[in-house]
């Protein structure tokens, strides 16, 4: 699911319904990972998700660029 950080709070019910479809519920210990290009916005998104009750939300440190550099050298960067 792709959501702009600036719209997260307004789209809480949509996010909750989408996560519920995937079996992730508010307050559950299920993994919820957030990623962005460099990791800055995903950190802020995780803070918002924690405020919304998704305490298991985590970000991918360093974002897609870090993933491409450290994990999957064939991953395309933009």
3D architecture notes:
Pfam families: Rhodanese (PF00581). By secondary structure, the chain is mainly alpha-helical. Helices cover 38% and strands 8% of the residues. The chain contains three helices and two strands, in the order αβαβα. It has helices spanning 12-21, 40-51, 63-70, and strands spanning 32-34, 57-59. A two-stranded parallel ribbon has the order 1-2. It is elongated, with a radius of gyration of 13 Å.
Concise structural overview:
This protein is mainly α and 78 residues long. Helices cover 38% and strands 8% of the residues. A two-stranded parallel sheet has the order 1-2.
Extended strand count: 2
Structural class: mainly alpha
- Shape call: elongated
Report the sheet-strand fraction.
5-15%
Count every helix, treating DSSP H or I runs of 4 or more residues as helices. 3
Rounded to the nearest angstrom, the radius of gyration is 13 Å
**Could you spell the SSE succession in H and E letters?**
HEHEH
Q: Unreliable stretches, pLDDT < 50, 5 or more residues?
A: none
Major β-sheet, in short?
Answer: 2 strands, parallel
Features:
mainly alpha; two-stranded parallel sheet; 3 helices; Rhodanese-like_dom_sf; 78 residues; Rhodanese domain-containing protein; Rhodanese-like_dom
SSE diagram, text form:
Blueprint: H1 12-21, E1 32-34, H2 40-51, E2 57-59, H3 63-70
Parallel strand pairs: 1-2
């Amino acid at each position: 699911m792709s959501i702009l950080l600036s719209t997260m709070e307004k789209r809480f019910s949509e996010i909750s319904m989408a996560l519920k479809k995937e079996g992730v519920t508010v307050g559950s210990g299920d993994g919820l990972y957030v990623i962005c290009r460099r990791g800055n916005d995903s950190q802020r998104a995780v803070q918002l998700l924690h405020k919304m009750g998704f305490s298991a939300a985590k970000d991918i440190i360093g974002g897609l660029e870090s993933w491409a550099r450290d994990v999957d050298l064939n991953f395309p960067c933009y």
